[in-house]
Amino acid sequence: MEEDEELGDDWAAAMNEQASAETQGRRNTGDFEAAQFDELESMPSMMGERKMSKEDIELDVILDIPVVISMEIGRAQINIRNLLQLNEGSVVELDRLAGEPMDVLVNGTLIAHGEVVVVNDKFGIRLTDVVSPSERVKRLS
Question: Is the dihedral of CA 38, 42, 47, 50 positive or negative?
Answer without folding.
Answer: negative
